[in-house]
Amino acid sequence: MFPRHARSLACRALFVLSASSAVLHPQPPPPSHPDVLQVNGVGSGLVPLDGPWQFHLGDDPAWSSPAFDDSSWEQIAVDEPWGAQTHNGYTGRAWYRRHIVFQGVPGAAPDIALYMPITRDACEVYWNGRLVGGFGKLPPHAVWYYDSVWPYTLGLGKPTAGVIAIRVWKAPYDAYGDPTSGGLEGAPLAGNAEAVANARAAHDYHWLRTSEFSIGLDVCYALTAVLCFLVWLGDRRQRILGWMALYAVSPLATFLLDNLPLLVPYRWDYGLLFLAFAAGEIGLWYVLIELLELDRHTRFKRITAILACIVVGCALLQGVLHLLNWESGPARLYLILDHAFTLVTDLVDLYPLVFIPLAFKKRLGISRSILAVFAMLNQIVQVMPSIFTERILFTNFHALDPFLNFDLHLGGSDLGIQDIGNALLFLCIVYALVNYLDRSRTRQHELETEFRSARELQQFLIPACLPDVPGFTLTSAYRPARDVGGDFFQIIEVDSSATLIVLGDVSGKGLKAAMAVSVIVGAVRALASAQSQPHQLLRELNSHLHSSLGGAFATCAILRISAAGACAFSSAGHPPPLLNGREMQASGALPLGIASDESYEEIRFSVQPEDTLALYTDGLLEARNHSGELFGFARLQSLFATRPTATQAADAAEQFGQDDDITVLTLTRISAAELQISRLSQGLKGRDFSHAG
Fold first, then answer.
1. Which of 3, 119, 343, 549 has the most neighbouring CB atoms within 10 Å?
2. What pLDDT score does 405 carry?
3. How far apart are CA 364 and CA 379, in angstroms?
4. Rounded to two decimals, what is the model's pTM?
5. Higher pLDDT, 681 or 658
6. Cα distance between residue 319 and residue 316, in whole Å
């Protein structure tokens, strides 16, 4: 998971500012209380209100009163949380009290302001029993923030003697809680408004200075996410860019939730953070799977999808869990449940350690090999701290603290081991992604070249100009579903009075189907010269193609037709022809290329003058509209009952919703009168009238 920037940076940003003229002069305490802090020179700088403070667990509004006797309370320091002192793991309410005498500097600003340190998780500050400010909101309707590490300021009024009482509430620990936290984590600083404002500005500058690297890295992630998302929108086939956008947007979301804590209360922020982490992890998985070419296994993709659902489900459950009221309920149960969900998430997050080693067997090149190595190392660096954080909560295991708390200082920025791991992995992914896209463009160019060649080849396989079929008017239409299709037809003259019409459909689409078409058409033309009977030609064609289609198959119909209208038809799994809109009855048989010893039956019939015979591929039947309804036999028969041309029939199916290659042939027998006129016209064209008259 990505680092929690604000927690790791701001906890190291504690500092104490003191002007050279601000001096602490303890005076003999009054008899009423053993520990009274005398603060002189307030107004000329900032004075730390350190030393022992009175402290008591529990809650009573009367403890804000300056008259309350707190001499029996225990004393603790305020420069570190109560969990690091005597109350490890305590959550709930507690009070701090300090008896102070403020004395201002003549001529300085009359009012005193306080610069309050980190307070976990919500507090109210009282001065002489008057509420003067606070951070968050205490129960029963608690409001606190994911990173309550930002100092805050408040005013006390004119210098005088009194009691500062701080009422603190620590929220129940979650899976990432620290049992050594709670309450104040630094001494309040007193001074005039200008000095307090300067201290706040210095803190903000220090945070910004130490966060430069993390902010710069997150900006790079954000720009990458935007760029990948925009390119993916333009081409949804580039799935890797969509996953890269999801992966890269996660650090930005995490950074905003970490470092702008007042935007979202902790109840909502916690679940949103886990969703951001889940999005980043899932995006990273799929980016790695695509880059390492592990996306071709159906079972592997199914496992990845299941694990992704588990991660998102745990994130949602943790978010819902945190919305429940655990302030006065069984906080231990909440902690156990939160740890259970976190542990499941952490174990699933180790998933890349399982699939990344598979990439090394593929010899993917130097860029992707380096990516695989860094991805494995980074996953260990990101997940292991979370696991050991949980181990610390339950077993007080600190052996890996030096590794987990490793810091590198670079130009004023503090870099943790997770920051370094994220930066290196990001660079590796970007480098591998650029190479991947470059290879994809090269492959795409090669495919386009192959498709152009296939289209050029198909122009020779599909007759552009229809030959004459004696005694018939012929129309044709060919509409591939893609650039190249799997339908084919050939018109072969047997002799002066008979013609073979071969129509078929190869399984599949695209380039592979087009290549199979070229094999079939070549075989048809070679075999038709020796055998013109449809059923025998199909048998020889099937025997020839059985081992030549590379696992594909093809339906095929062969029609032998004479000028006198005598027809012989045989089919290998292809729809029978339509005569005047009525389907001819033909025996079924297996398509070509399935069984080498398949035999085919032949039917004989006659076509009368003005009859129309139509042959088609199943793309016509399987046209599908937006509601999923097929074109179907009923529409097909109604369409051909009107005796349309092949173009009209193909247009009707295409407008309905083309889903596959469509090929239509129609043959209309010429009437005797038309045939006589045609012969007369041909005879007149052959005579020489140059000497007439």
1. 119
2. 58
3. 20
4. 0.59
5. 658
6. 5
542 SS3 class: helix
Residues 674 and 672: their CA atoms lie apart, in Å, by: 5
pLDDT at 322: 79
Return phi, psi of residue 480, to 5°. -70, 145
HEC-encoded secondary structure of 183-226: EECCCCEEECHHHHHHHHHHHHHHHHHHCHHHHHHHHHHHHHHH
- Could you give the CA distance from residue 502 to residue 540 in angstroms, rounded to a whole number? 14
Question: Which of the 8 DSSP states describes residue 318?
Answer: H
CATH top class, domain 5-207: mainly beta
Q: What DSSP line would sit under 262-275, residue for residue?
A: GGSBHHHHHHHHHH
* The two structure tokens encoding residue 425: 């992995």
Say whether the peptide bond before residue 121 is cis (omega within 30 degrees of 0): yes
If pLDDT is split at 50, 70 and 90, which confidence band does 21 have? very low
Residue 24 near residue 44 (C-beta atoms within 8 A)? no
Smallest Cα–Cα separation from 545: which of 523, 517, 514? 523
Domain 211-444 has CATH 1.20.1070: yes
**What is the pLDDT, as a whole number, of residue 414?**
64
Output the pLDDT for position 112: 85
CB 182 within 8 A of CB 82: yes
In CATH, what class is 462-683? alpha beta
How does residue 645 score in pLDDT terms, banded at 50, 70 and 90? very high
Tell me the domain boundaries of the chain: 5-207, 211-444, 462-683
> Does residue 601 register a pLDDT over 80?
yes
Do β-strands 119-120 and 183-184 pair in parallel, antiparallel, or remain unpaired? antiparallel
CA distances from 51 to 37, 38, 223, 669 (A): 8, 11, 49, 113
* Contact (CB, 8 A) for 118 and 151: yes
Q: How far is CA 312 from CA 268, 387, 465, 480, 570, in A?
A: 16, 19, 60, 42, 58
